[in-house]
Design goal:
- The protein starts with 15 loop residues before the first strand and ends with a strand.
- It has three domains: about 100 residues, Translation factors (Elongation Factor Tu (Ef-tu), domain 3, Beta Barrel), CATH 2.40.30; about 100 residues, NADPH-cytochrome p450 Reductase, Chain A, domain 3, CATH 1.20.990; about 140 residues, Rossmann fold, CATH 3.40.50.
- The mean pLDDT is about 95.
- The chain is α/β, with parallel strands linked by helices.
- The protein is about 35% helix and about 20% strand.
Length: about 375
């Protein structure tokens, strides 16, 4: 009699086929944004997560874009191709749908098109973009396009299916901060996802994974390949430690998990949540939950920054500066300081505000304030999850 098969271990290389069991828009009508709450069932997976972890998702590309590329290549979609790093051939349609990134064309695409096109003026334009002194122009040109644009704009540049596939990178999984606590939802993960939709170069564009979840996955039916990505970003191990959480927009996701977990664990440390978005009337995501936590004393402070509700824009870093003395008192009392969200602007602005507050409230010069913040990081009291 053979031994029973060992249970499957689900990883990035062997993702679990999860089912989406909830999908709702968090913004109110009239919002300029589309932020969605997804509930993902992990039942039967054996996967475990902690607050601060992320869920990795492997999306598929839009069928309309895949079929458009196949038509522009003059192909049927059934041609066998071998993408980079693949060991077995796939059909062109399967490779374009599941395995390859159709966005973010590279310099190599411009070089290939320039070598193939028959139109002299177009070739000169592309070769000009490739000159070292025109790097900034090239980056702008590429940023405004997907691979399908090149097939449209330069029809005389003919590619075989294998040549075209050889220009594409692998479609990588997307990581989303988990917005739930395993103490409350052991077999379920919640995600807070901004659906990305925009227009460049006279074409509508979408975020591959955000619209895969929003538009193309059928609730309670379609399997979605997922894995848990464990993170260094964790709430205080000591439940008595205070916790300051700064998370505008979808950056609020892990802090929903932090607060849920600390409440479920009967942590005695105080919670201070700083959230911001465009308008309170339309963009106060999870607002009822936060106000309920505040009313019950589960959140000690809730500071809200709305950038469009008054003549001057107010951001989370402004709320920190407004409450500089209180922030300093919490830090001096041992609080952890956590930031999640946009790396390019918000996280830098919050970091600058933190340094200024430490210098001002602590009576320090710039160097001493920088050293204080460095010590916060060293002792894991200043953690960031930025993207």
């Amino acid at each position: 009699m053979s031994a029973p098969a060992a249970p499957a271990v689900y990883t990035k290389d062997n993702p679990f086929p999860a089912i989406i069991i909830g999908n709702r828009v968090l913004n109110q009508p009239g919002s300029a944004k589309e932020t969605r709450h997804f509930s993902v069932s992990l039942a039967g997976s054996g996967l475990h997560y902690e607050p601060g972890d992320s869920l990795g998702i492997y999306p598929t590309n839009r069928e309309s874009e895949v079929e458009e590329i196949i038509a522009l290549l003059g192909a049927t979609g059934e041609e066998p191709v071998i993408p980079a790093r693949a060991t077995q051939p796939l059909t062109l349609r399967a490779a374009l749908t599941q395995g390859l990134d159709l966005d973010l064309p590279t310099r190599k695409m411009v070089e290939m098109v320039a070598a193939k096109i028959t139109d002299g003026a177009s070739r000169r334009h592309l070769l000009d973009l490739l000159l070292p002194e025109n790097q900034a122009r090239l980056e702008t040109f590429l940023h405004e396009r997907s691979f399908v644009d090149f097939l449209h704009e330069y029809p005389s540049a003919r590619f075989t299916p294998q040549e075209f596939v050889g220009l594409l990178r692998r479609l990588m999984p997307r990581l989303y901060s988990i917005a739930s606590s395993p103490r409350c939802f052991p077999d379920e993960v919640h995600l807070t996802v901004a659906a990305v939709r925009y227009r460049t170069n006279n074409r509508d564009r979408v975020g591959v994974c955000s619209t895969y979840l929003s538009d193309r996955v059928t609730l309670h039916a379609d399997p979605v390949p997922v894995f848990v990505h464990h993170s260094h970003f964790k709430p205080p191990a000591d439940g008595a430690q205070d916790c300051i959480m700064v998370g505008p927009g979808t950056g609020i996701a892990p802090f929903r998990a932090f607060v849920q977990d600390r409440i479920a664990a009967s942590a005695t440390g105080r919670n201070w949540v700083v959230f911001g978005d465009q308008s309170r009337a339309t963009d106060f995501i999870y607002g009822d939950e936060w106000l309920n936590c505040l009313a019950q004393g589960q959140v000690a402070r809730l500071d809200l920054a709305w950038s469009r509700d008054q003549a001057h824009k107010v951001y989370v870093q402004d709320k920190l500066r407004e409450n500089a003395a209180e922030l300093w008192a919490w830090l001096q009392g041992g609080a952890g300081f956590y930031v999640c969200g946009d790396a390019k602007r918000m996280a830098k602005d919050v970091d600058l505000a933190l340094h200024e507050i430490v210098a001002q409230q602590g009576g320090m010069d710039t160097a001493a304030a920088a050293d204080y913040v460095k010590q916060l990081k060293k002792h894991k009291r200043y953690q960031r999850d930025v993207y």
